[in-house]
Amino acid sequence: MYSRRLELSVGAFVLLGALCLAFLALEVSGLASTGDNGTYRLSARFDNVAGLTTRAKVSAAGVTVGRVVGIRYDKATAAAIVDMEISQDFAEFSEDTSASILTAGLLGEKYIGLSTGGDPNNLADGDMIYDTQSAIVLEELIGKFLLNMSSEK
Amino acid sequence: MIIILLSNLQNPVEIEDVGFRRDRRVIYDGLNATVPRGKITAIVGPSGTGKTTLLRLIGGQLKPESGDVRVDGVSVQSLKRAELFQLRKRMGMLFQSGALFAELSVFENVAFPLRVHTDLDDELIRLIVLMKLEAVGLRGAVNLVPSELSGGMQRRVALARAIALDPEMIMYDEPFAGQDPIGLGVLLSLVKQLNQALGLTSLVVSHDLQETLSIADHVIMIANNRVAFEGSPAVMQSSNDPLVQQFLHGSPDGPVRFHFPAPALEDALS
Amino acid sequence: MIDWIAGVGRSTLSQVSDLGRASLMLMQAIFGRSNVGVYGRLTVDQIYAVGVLSLSIIIVSGLFIGMVLGLQGYTILTDYGSEQALGQMVALSLTRELGPVVTALLFAGRAGSALTAEIGLMKATEQLASLEMIGVDPLRRVVAPRFWAGVISLPILSLIFVSVGCLGGALVGVSWLGVDSGSFWANMQASVDFFDDVFNGMIKSVVFAIVVTWIAVYQGYDLVPTSEGIARATTKTVVYASLAVLGLDFFLTAVMFGEI
Q1: Other CB atoms within 10 Å distance of the CB of residue B22
Q2: Residues 15..44 of A with a Cβ closer than 8 Å to C: which?
Q3: Which residues in chain A are contacts of B108 at CB distance < 8 A?
């Protein structure tokens, strides 16, 4: 028969589900850390973006400030242009900010690191960053290393 | 017009030239029968001749392939689902196993049809349920659950549930099967009492021939896909039909063969 | 040979007609007019039966699977010196794959088979026929509440499974094996995206819930009403539901995570 205990336990069950959803949202996927105050868009021109994907994170001083939303090839300059959405909370990047493609750990994923400069003017929505350092391609690195070895002999 | 109305009043169920098959096996082929109002009609016949199927056709749970099944002059097979459910409120059916809802108490089982079909308040429902249970002699079991009752008592509770909405007709599917002599006697007298007290039209499908015939006013015997006999029990006893006689006396051989159809024994052995 | 081809044809036809009947049943059960008050109450009853009563197996399995992931992941990741990625590995495998799939498989075994057996028993004891004769549609009274209960319960169970699994992984990784707690959770948060991973996992779970419950109630409703029929239908429910979950998982994964 229909009892109060049954009703309560079903209520508790649904509540437990909601708690787990909150746990997954906050603790596991860290949804809260990317605040929701809107974003603005910056672009950066790289010679080489090997390994970078959309949705890769953009960090400044180790703090995630945004995400990569698009990577395209610019025919005119034969370079890659990366579009990033940066949270409004982190709106103070100077105009001489530099961007570099970094790797989390030896085999980790690629991400973009921004380091702000000293210019008093700040970057605004739609601005382009030219001061960039491209992705490190392991093959090129090894090639250079071998070249140095042979030239030293 | 008046004559038609009168004839409908006389026979709440009319079955006309009904054909029915189940998985290619012919069950009925041109079946004709009528059920008189206010009487107990027994439906008898050898096993597997589709006696229960007849009840399901009348209740609209199955549809005939051909022919017409009319309840109160309305063709059951042509009714829409909602109309069918309306019609069924006027029929009660007692299933072989009782078919009580296992998770509900005896009280709730009997109250179930009242709760889904009426807006009566709890006090009135309680009154009706107790009256119906009193009629089957189980008012004392009102708070038990079905699994605490014997098979015979479960059938009586199911009977109380079947008459909860005061139907005009009630169908019994093997009500006596597997009962000890006392339980059988109780059910037998209940069927008769309810028929008389409530003026119900009763249809009883049963294997227990002598017991059923002792309370029946009208007998329909089904064999070989057709009605083999229809009439009063007394006429049946004196019938010359060899099939009826074999069935009445339980002879091992007759029109219904002891041997399953097979090639001649000599051929099979050689 | 001819017989064999005819056999294939016949079984195909019967499969198609089965699917048709199952769809019709679902339509009638869901879209029939019904009294919301009464049926809502029946659905709550069924959520208790299929959801709350499945909690223990889901929590225990989630905990152990999370712990195994932690242990296995650690031994593999230490080879590359990146054991701080353990949190990410545990959380991603749970939210995207193991959570929805394993929960659905356990649900098919625990609740699906019980649903089939229960409805089958009601059919075998003529309770369904009896409902019909009382003038109550068993599809709405019996099948619909069970269907909705399954569809509601499974995603909730899946959420619980994933959460407990992540905690289990953390238990092994952080408390036993000494991965730094900060980097464990931070790596997890950095790589798990709520919409891509958690939300997509939930979509999978809802799809599995519909399919598993549908198979379970159909097998129960359509079975041959004998004890052998019930046994066979219960087995069919578990086998068909598990295959459907694994097959659908492939397609859903291909659609959700395939490209990009």
Answers
A1: 10
A2: 16-17, 20-21, 23-25, 27-31, 33
A3: 1
The pair phi, psi for residue B257, each rounded to 5°, is -75, 145
What would you measure as the largest C-alpha separation in chain C, in angstroms? 70
Q: How far apart are CA C43 and CA B116, in angstroms?
A: 17
Measured between alpha carbons, how far is A57 from A30 in angstroms, rounded to an integer? Answer: 13
Q: What is the dihedral of CA A9, A14, A20, A25, to 10 degrees?
A: -160
All chains having 3 or more CB pairs closer than 8 angstroms to chain A = B, C
B105 CB near a chain A CB, below 8 Å?
Answer: yes
C88-98 average pLDDT score: 91
- Kindly state the tokens that stand for C147: 């269907």
pLDDT above 70 covers a percentage of chain A that reads 91
Given CB atoms, is A106 within the 8 Å cutoff of chain B? Answer: no
Q: What is the 3-state secondary structure (H, E, C) of C115-173?
A: HHHHHHHHHHCCHHHHHHHHCCCHHHHHHHHHHHHHHHHHHHHHHHHHHHHHHHHHHHH
Q: Do B116 and C125 touch (CB under 8 A)?
A: no
**Residues A48-75, mean pLDDT to the nearest whole number:** 80
User: Which residues, 6+ apart, have CB-to-CB distance to C33 below 8 Å?
Assistant: none
Q: Which helix (H) or strand (E) holds A59?
A: strand A57-60
| Band of residue C260 on the pLDDT scale cut at 50, 70, 90 | very low
- Quickly state the pLDDT bin for B9 (edges 50, 70, 90): low
Using the beta-carbon criterion (under 8 Å), do A31 and C194 form an inter-chain contact?
Answer: yes
Beta pairing, strands A57-60 & A110-115: parallel
Nearest Cα to Cα of residue B168 among B49, B27, B24, B37? B37
Distance CA C30, CA C23 (A): 11
User: If DSSP codes are grouped into helix, strand and coil, which group holds residue A38?
Assistant: coil
pLDDT tier for residue C32 given thresholds of 50, 70 and 90? low
Q: What are the pLDDT digits (tens) for B75-130?
A: 888 888 778 888 888 888 888 877 888 888 899 888 988 888 888 888 898 998 89
A133-148: buried (b, 16+ CB within 10 Å) or exposed (e) per residue? ebbeeeeeeeeeeeee
* Per-residue tokens: A35: 């605040």
Give φ, ψ of C183 to 5 degrees: -70, -30
Chain A segment 1-40 residues within 8 A of B by beta carbon are 1
pLDDT digits (tens, 9 = 90+) for B209-247: 888 888 888 888 888 778 888 888 888 888 888 888 888
Q: Sorting pLDDT into bands at 50, 70 and 90, what band is B7? A: very low
Chain A residue whose CA is closest to B102: A1
Q: Which of A2, A92, A79, A88 is nearest to A40 (CA)?
A: A88
Q: What is the predicted pLDDT for the residue at B2?
A: 42
pLDDT of residue B6: 44
pLDDT for position C57: 94
Q: Round to whole Å and give the CA distance between C36 and C140.
A: 11
Nearest CA in chain B to C33: B82
8 Å CB contact of A21 and C159? yes
Q: Which two tokens stand for residue C239?
A: 């086998």
